[in-house]
From TrEMBL:
It catalyses: a 5'-end ribonucleotide-tRNA(His) + GTP + ATP + H2O = a 5'-end phospho-guanosine-ribonucleotide-tRNA(His) + AMP + 2 diphosphate + H(+). The keyword GTP-binding applies. Residues 9-138 form the tRNAHis guanylyltransferase catalytic domain. It comes from Cyclopterus lumpus (Lumpsucker). Gene3D superfamilies: 3.30.70.3000. Belongs to the tRNA(His) guanylyltransferase family. This is tRNA(His) guanylyltransferase.
Length: 269
């Protein structure tokens, strides 16, 4: 802060190492819940996908985007969320530790702060934690491949979990039997089990579970009613439309071209 007084101890600052992120690269911060396998069990998450938990993750990610600077897109699934800072960001002089810890702490405190909105009276039993890492991507292709990698991971895990829990919950198998049944199966085999044995079409399962959650800033027209006073002193409601920039959630494919063609502002030259 403003206190410029020097002491003989000041030299210890020189022990700090430089962790400036390379210029011109997208800075990705990925968070992952610490030991959430246990956290999910202790908080009785519904298997395989607890929508309260997903909602809370997304709410916390929204808080990160709204409170911190320069995040252009975020992608989340399971207990993880990735945040992408624009490549020209100079926030905190691009210091990796500052960016990562601000993301992790804003996310963690929001997770606790908004817990009740999603879990109601069910108590939060202990303070959850999230690890963070920073990765730099120098090209749009690399960044898109990173996001594709996370969405592919979501797809593979969700397909496995969907079949696994269907075999257990609707097929009467034990978890060990379900595990054995799925050993060595490919995506096509899993689709087939779901379809022929349980009449489930994987592709019509909920998009939030199959595709994860993508958050972006979008300008949209919003209409609100405002109470105004007329010249004659009478009060009346009028509709006011204005364009507002807000964080919006998508549960769509982000691997292919259409999403990026529809939102050309996310990636820079
Ligand atoms: P930055 O985000 O850069 O850290 P900052 O506003 O947090 O900005 P600091 O240099 O960290 O700046 O200073 C923290 C400030 O918080 C103090 O200057 C003081 O005003 C306030 N503060 C912190 N703890 C207390 C406390 N226990 N009692 C009163 N004020 C406090
Ligand atoms: P680590 O600390 O190494 O990350 P972890 O136990 O968190 O260990 P992950 O690989 O991150 O392991 O897996 C997260 C686990 O959290 C999932 O396997 C699942 O059991 C649980 N989980 C997370 N989100 C949900 C959800 N929305 N619904 C149900 N289970 C969930
Ligand atoms: Mg301080
Ligand atoms: Mg401070
Ligand atoms: Mg992990
Ligand atoms: Mg985890
Ligand atoms: Mg995880």
């Amino acid at each position: 802060s403003g206190n410029m007084a020097k002491s003989k101890f000041d030299y210890v600052r020189n022990f700090e190492t430089d962790d400036t992120c390379l210029r011109n690269c997208y800075i990705v911060v990925r968070l992952d819940g610490r030991n959430f396998h246990k956290f999910a069990e202790q908080h009785t998450f519904i298997k395989p996908n607890d929508n309260r938990a997903l909602g809370l993750m997304t709410r916390s990610a929204r808080s990160v985007m709204e409170e911190l600077e320069d995040i252009v897109i975020a992608y989340g699934q399971s207990d993880e969320f990735s945040f992408v800072f624009k490549r020209t960001s100079t926030w905190f002089k691009r210091r990796a530790s500052k960016l990562m810890t601000h993301v992790a702490s804003q996310f963690s405190s929001s997770y606790v702060f908004y817990w009740k909105e999603f879990f109601g009276e069910q108590p939060l039993l202990y303070p959850p934690g999230f690890d963070g890492r920073v990765v730099l991507y120098p090209s749009n292709r690399n960044l898109r491949d990173y996001l594709s990698w996370r969405q592919a991971d979501c797809h593979i895990n969700n397909m496995y979990n969907t079949v696994f829990w269907t075999l257990v919950q609707n097929g009467g198998l034990t978890t060990t039997q379900a595990e054995d049944r799925l050993k060595g199966t490919l995506a096509a085999d899993k689709n087939e089990i779901l379809f022929s044995e349980f009449n489930i079409n994987y592709n019509t399962e909920s998009a939030i579970h199959r595709k994860g959650t993508t958050l972006i800033w979008e300008k949209r027209d919003e209409t609100a009613t405002k109470r105004t006073k007329l010249p004659n002193g009478e009060e009346t409601d009028v509709a006011v439309t204005r364009s507002r920039r807000r964080v919006h959630a998508h549960h769509c494919d982000i691997i292919g071209e259409p999403f990026w063609a529809e939102h050309p502002d996310i990636l820079e030259e």
